[in-house]
Amino acid sequence: MKTKSSLPAFTLIEAFLYFVISSIFLLAALLFMLQITNVSTLSKHMQELSYSGTTLTEELEQAVHGASSVDTVQSVFDDDEGSLVLNMNDVSLSPTRFYWENGNIMMQQGTGAIFSVNTPFVVVDSLRFHKISIYKSPDQIIMDAELRSLGDLANQDHSISVHSTLSLRSL
Fold first, then answer.
1. Predicted model pTM
2. Which helix or strand (DSSP H or E) is residue 142 part of?
């Protein structure tokens, strides 16, 4: 006599469907995790760019506001590898130089140490200064810079343009 087992069992097709559905969910979760990682990396790169742009603008603003004049002989205007030399009110900081060198924006105050204004993860593609002089008004300095992140994500544009217009405080 045959007895029927009362224990429920999976058929081979049901087990196969279970593994296929589980694999699809795991693959979706893995792809979502990779997207989150890429977005996090992109966010870090943009933060580096923003920090370098802000630091450059603040350093330039502080120097221009403390300057008595612009040294037009040593400065290079309207060139992608420009430089700006400022004669400072504080003699120990004079001259203060901003210039482009090997993808970095360098700064030197007086005879002090030369240092890079941008972070090591940011490359400066161009640094351009323009001077505007109008009779009986302070000189204005316009700075344009193109900053690019040294990123590890392919096909992503990680660059910003920094523009600043500043006036010397003295005539």
1. 0.72
2. strand 140-149
